[in-house]
Task: structure prediction
Amino acid sequence: MHRAGRGTVAYFWLIVVIVLVYYWKFTLTRQFSLLIDWEQVSQAYSWHNFWVQTVSSGHLPLWDPYTYFGHSFIGEMQTGAFYPLNLLLLLAPSNRDGMFSPQLFHYAFILSHLAAAWTMYGLARELGRSRFAALVAGTCFSLGGYVARIAWPHMLGTCVWLPAVVLLVIRAMQPDRSAKNRACHAILAGNLLGLAALAGGLHMSIMQAIVVSTLAIYLAFAQKRESTSSSYLWALGVVSIVGIVAFAAAAIQLLPSAEYSRDSIRFGVDGGFPAAQKILYNGLSQGVYPHGLLSLVSFHGTIGEGETANPYMGVIPLALCIIAVWRCWHVAIVRYATVLAVCGLMYAMGHYSLFHGIAYATVPYLWLAREAGRFVYLTSFGMAILVAFGIDVLASAVHAERDWAKASTVLKWSGFICASPLLVLALFGKPEISPWTSFSLMMLILSAAILHRVVARGLSGGLRFLLVALILWDLNALDWLPVNKAEAAKTDRDHLKRLLQAKEAAHFLRTQPGHFRVLVDAPDPPNIGDVFGAYTDKGAGVTLHNFYQTAAARLDMMNVEYVLRPASSAEPSPIYQDQHWKVYKRADALPRAWIVHRIIQDSHDKVVRAVETRAVDLRTTALVERPLALQAPADALTNESVRFISYSPDVIRAQATAATASLLIFSEMYDPGWRVQVNGQAAELLRVDGVLRGVPIPAGSSSVTMTYRPASVTIGATFGALAVLASTFSAYQLIRDRRRSERAATERSSSVNA
Result:
């Protein structure tokens, strides 16, 4: 391996060491966890568990039968059902409870941060930065700012790919490359952008698309070529290629999500509203408070409304950004990164920002990213690029020049000013300040001291170590994502522990005969469906199917035979009880499937009204929305039956015996993506009783098979395969051309030496 290659490998492993040491709370102990809050446990962890268990059993994780009476698992992007890197989760066995290991959840979190550091390192090197500068930039991007403060796997998984996408877009916009070479890089950029979307972070994907489009146009403007119009045309071509390939790569997730959004409601202001409907301005998060801008200099806890992440990247990184803007403004990418960081922060201010309102009104589909505070992600990305330039300025500057002398003086007096409050507090015990404020002041003092030393003496090896160490100390002390499990237990807010406490009750339920569902009647209900395989009425997500409220109003119709309540419930006569939970039996539940001969046809609204008001006996009568003629039996039937042959998340097989042509009703949520076969022949799936599935069957014995295979998945998989083929071909072309260039260079060198 040549020297350059050895250096790259060394820095690769140095990043690994830095990230593993930074997350010592997960790598060296078991006392901390990300899985404390209800949403993180009931959504992210439970979805991972369902995904792993379903794929391990040989089924596609398309339909989740365990929550919300059954619903489309791929309808919400957050599940990351098609994210290829999730396959790595299958390499580890289940834990002793038969669950997806919570510790593996933490390791996946760390791996995402490694990917973020590696990709930013690669981008900084592409921009001509030194290895050390690229190391610091990767560290700041991964462990500081927005990326460091987001625990959601789908958002984190999307965030990490932006540096790699930008690297490829920059290559696609370089005029000294051939058109074929540039097109290949654009195709690869699109594939990576699609991969990022498959992780599930829709908001992040929207921001990444903004970066790709604005960067390509800006680079075309900055190149100042003779033919300006051709530069802009090429930029438009690059954006088009990236967009088309990205859509194709992510179509297997985007198309089902778009299809599902038409039939679902989104949680928001004043309850729910149609998921496909544009969010009104008052439904958007207000974003970062004006005083939250100070968090760039000194860490503050709550800086805004909603899911607003603190953009704090550390004192030294902020100083490096200022140095980069000061000394490298002539570099095009520095100007772009600066404007991107500022615009991200302006938009993140939400209702306090004119820029936010204008962008909401003019940029198509930007309303989908309703949490304005998340746009500090763009600020963090821009700052990480500036950090790399700032480091190299410090390493190569002629520190004796007058401007640097002034900078040295500013740093010295800044340290003295920050030290004054701490000195007064130490001497007199007043004024009282919070420990975190005093910590921020201490970081300002130490940062000023190190930077003053660097300006005076240059960036030597020892100072490089101290600089990185101080950045890590600053960021790690203010990393509040890992929660101490012992402290969480004191306040009874450890929801993973609460979920595990329901294991025995869930096991009891699963040992009961027949097919049935469970009503989880508890505040912040644990997701025993996705984790323990109990069929329940509850779940966790950001949307609900339009039919859910009707289903929840008729628990008998939805085959709810049992109720799970906390042990503190005063209701008598539980059939099961342990220290934490009680189980009760319900008497009015209809079976999971039954046969009817009486049909009433009406409009959907009237059908729903009749179901909710209990106007008809659903055990003997079916409410349908289109004409359906059945032959009523002459006598009472005693020999009709339905039994299940197999029951899995995406395939249900049943054997039904009917005296005459009948309607077989399944107590399963209707979805047009289900395909039905009766006796091996394709059959029609009807929406019955407003929310259920119905299948017309003939007299006699019928074999019925229902398979969940939405057309959107098939179409999306086809597009995805084409994107992979195009990217594979592009990668092959780039590798082949590079090898040819290397051979040509070797031959020229040999001929010169000869």
Q: What stands out?
A: Residues 161-267 form one domain. The chain has 25 helices and 22 strands. The mean pLDDT is 88.
